[in-house]
Q: What sequence folds into this?
């Protein structure tokens, strides 16, 4: 690697690093009150301390559990409903308009009702996450199945495929690009919903960590919690891209740079 | 090479008074045709004359409004497993590798046979690639391999070369001719290219306005040379016949209900 190519690699990082330096400097010089924004070093220190005490893991685990279970339930139901309405005329007639109506209710508006139904325990948060992830996956599954090339289905039928074989070899792979778009949308909604649900009522989790720290004016922990959410969101997105790269490797648009052949 | 080389006789085909109407519009108005086993028949005609519809009826993708389709002693629908159709577009599944496309719908140990079929169309070395990496002509050759692996006794070709460039077309014509001579299946080739029809077929059928307008045998020895005067004469005969008739007002292609519109239920 030459000096120039190294510079090209590092260039995108120059601005964030400079910003962090300015931020740190402003706090150290007293230009920025720690009540408004703690120094980056303080955030790091808070993170280190919580990591050491094991507290961070507990909160991360509980938030991750809520997100995962909610996503699995909501995504599973969305996928199933999408298959039903996408594959059968009767399914569409019976279900689609109902699902579309429910979709138009902002799920976060249900929070008061959800608290009445479930109290403030885990099921309330899982329910909200499930509701938030259901519709993007439902819509994209339905749309993906409807847009499978009918010419390919006709060809496959003329080669004797029908029933589950037709579904597995033609319809599902054809709908997969769209389904994965739904998954990425759903992952975004998953964290968003969880953040709101955890800040309103929780006794553990990253949202609780942030709200609790606010009570004690620990801005460093608040910023840490925000960064953790950002990191988790990024991780989920990387995972979804990984799925695309594996499952859609046949698709020229998704082949890894350099052309995975 | 055992599987591909076992000789199976082509199907003799009898088309008896078939007609097909989409709603009020009659696309095929009564066609009678007898095709002996192993004959290579080319069907030509203006676009919208009903030639593709005829092929779809033979392939069982649409049902005739009247008339009967017979293969040998029984109905053609009973010989569905012996019939394979090649479409104008290759219709490869983009998410299956080339070899898996060739083996579509097969069970058991089909891979050696799929390799043979690919070798027969000259693509043995591309077996592991995605269809997106192939050229148009190569995709059509994969589609041909996919049809041949089923050892069809009737091969239906719906303008399979229409989208290819001139040189690739000639190569493909020769490939299809060679494989036909090897395997002895009956071929029905729908094409809008009269030169192609007279160059490869034993017999050229012209369809006009849903009926047979001309039934012309091509009694020339093979291999035929492109540019041969007798080929040119036959081509001129067909073209004259097509052109002497005033063109019909432009009609949209018959819209047959595709599975997507019919919808499927699992």
A:
């Amino acid at each position: 690697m030459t000096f120039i190519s190294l510079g090209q690699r590092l260039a995108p990082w120059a601005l964030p690093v400079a910003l962090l330096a300015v931020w740190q400097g402003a706090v150290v010089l007293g230009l920025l009150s720690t009540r408004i924004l703690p120094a980056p070093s303080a955030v790091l220190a808070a993170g280190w301390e919580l990591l050491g005490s094991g507290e961070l893991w507990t909160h991360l685990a509980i938030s991750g559990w809520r997100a995962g279970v909610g996503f699995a339930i909501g995504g599973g139901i969305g996928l199933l409903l999408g298959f039903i309405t996408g594959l059968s005329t009767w399914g569409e007639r019976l279900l689609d308009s109902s699902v579309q109506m429910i979709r138009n209710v902002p799920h976060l508006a249900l929070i008061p009702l959800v608290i009445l139904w479930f109290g403030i325990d885990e099921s309330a948060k899982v329910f909200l996450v499930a509701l938030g992830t259901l519709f993007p996956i439902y819509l994209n599954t339905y749309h993906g199945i409807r847009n499978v090339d009918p010419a390919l289905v006709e060809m496959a039928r003329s080669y004797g495929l029908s029933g589950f074989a037709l579904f597995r070899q033609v319809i599902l792979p054809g709908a997969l690009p769209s389904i994965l778009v739904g998954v990425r949308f759903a992952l975004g909604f998953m964290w968003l919903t969880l953040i709101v649900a955890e800040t309103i009522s929780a006794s553990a989790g990253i949202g609780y960590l942030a709200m609790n720290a606010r009570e004690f004016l620990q801005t460093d922990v608040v910023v840490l919690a925000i960064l953790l959410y950002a990191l988790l969101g990024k991780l989920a997105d990387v995972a979804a891209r990984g799925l695309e790269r594996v499952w859609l490797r046949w698709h020229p648009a998704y082949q890894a740079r350099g052309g995975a052949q | 090479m055992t599987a591909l080389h076992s000789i199976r006789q082509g199907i003799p085909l009898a088309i008896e008074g078939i007609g097909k109407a989409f709603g009020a519009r009659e696309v095929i108005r009564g066609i009678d045709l007898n095709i002996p086993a192993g004959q290579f028949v080319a069907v030509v005609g203006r676009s919208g004359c009903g030639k593709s519809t005829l092929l779809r009826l033979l392939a069982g993708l649409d049902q005739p409004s009247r008339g009967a389709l017979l293969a040998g002693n029984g109905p053609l629908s009973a010989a569905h497993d012996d019939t394979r159709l090649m479409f104008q577009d290759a219709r490869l599944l983009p998410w299956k590798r080339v070899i898996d496309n060739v083996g579509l719908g097969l069970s058991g140990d089909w891979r050696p046979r799929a390799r043979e079929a690919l070798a027969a169309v000259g693509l043995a070395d591309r077996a592991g690639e995605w269809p997106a990496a192939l050229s148009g002509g190569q995709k059509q050759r994969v589609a041909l391999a996919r049809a041949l692996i089923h050892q069809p006794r009737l091969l239906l070709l719906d303008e399979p070369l229409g989208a290819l460039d001139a040189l690739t077309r000639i190569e493909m014509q020769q490939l299809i001719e060679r494989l036909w001579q090897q395997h002895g299946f009956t071929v029905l080739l729908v094409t809008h290219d009269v030169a192609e029809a007279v160059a490869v077929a034993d017999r050229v059928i012209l369809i006009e306005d849903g009926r047979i307008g001309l039934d012309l045998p091509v009694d020339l020895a093979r291999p035929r040379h492109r540019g041969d005067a007798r080929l040119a004469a036959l081509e001129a005969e067909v073209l004259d016949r097509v052109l002497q008739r005033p063109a019909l007002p432009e009609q949209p292609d018959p819209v047959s209900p595709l599975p997507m519109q019919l919808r499927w239920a699992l």
